[in-house]
Amino acid sequence: MNEAKTNKFSDQLHQAAAPLWQKSLHHPFITELASGQLPLTTFRYYLTQDTKYLEAFNQLHEKTAALLPSSQGELLLRLAREAGEDVQHNPILLQVDLTAGQIRQAPIAPNNYAYITHMEHQLSLSPAAAVAGLLPCYWLYDELADYWKGQTSPIPVYQAFFNSYQTAGFNNSTRLLIGLVDDLAAENSDLVKEQMLTAFMRSSRYELGFWQMAYTHQTWDDLEN
Ligand SMILES: Cc1ncc(CN)c(N)n1
């Protein structure tokens, strides 16, 4: 076994989150996307919430980059640009006739709100925790993309969604962010590393919650029941 690999902080993170990520991989939202059985209204709900999420996520990159030394901040902004998730020009939104106005008018759902708020909170703890909180968004979808390589959905727009994450740009951005997290862990104290682990695990839970939120079309009224 490669000792350098097993000593990496990101390996610890991956190991801790693996059971949660397995649940994401096998969530009914994902399996029904692949089988083609997912209702289009559910996919539209997901895309509506995801567009709001990605807008906030882009801003979080900028806020986090501003707290990092300039070389690390520039790297963070570059990998976000090169990941290929362009919320302004997402062809999948066009394919399901989802307009910017419809997305704006839809209320943000509780899990989405909590996930974004959680990532924003990390900014007040440490830049390293903020970066670690961003990582599951890349890394989980990169693993999903790998899993999706063997799948073909009978619904073309669901297949287009799978394909959109199977790009060298997304994979490369994920690798760069993992490297940045490892660098930050190496530079920081045990206390900060603990913050990083907590931020990463909570983001992983909110990722799993995101599928469930979309699958059930979660609303704020649901919190009363
Ligand atoms: C909620 C969520 N998590 C992750 C990704 C992929 N960056 C995404 N688009 N949306």
TrEMBL record:
Pfam families (UniProt xref): TENA_THI-4
Q: Is Protease found in the keyword set?
A: no
Coiled coil, from the record? none
Q: In which pathway does it act?
A: Cofactor biosynthesis; thiamine diphosphate biosynthesis
Q: Which UniProt keywords apply?
A: Thiamine biosynthesis
Q: Which residues cross the membrane?
A: none
Q: Which SUPFAM superfamilies match?
A: Heme oxygenase-like
Limits of the Thiaminase-2/PQQC domain: 14-216
Q: What class of enzyme is it?
A: hydrolase
Q: What is its EC number?
A: 3.5.99.2
| Similarity comment: family membership | Belongs to the TenA family.
- Quote the protein name from its UniProt record: Aminopyrimidine aminohydrolase
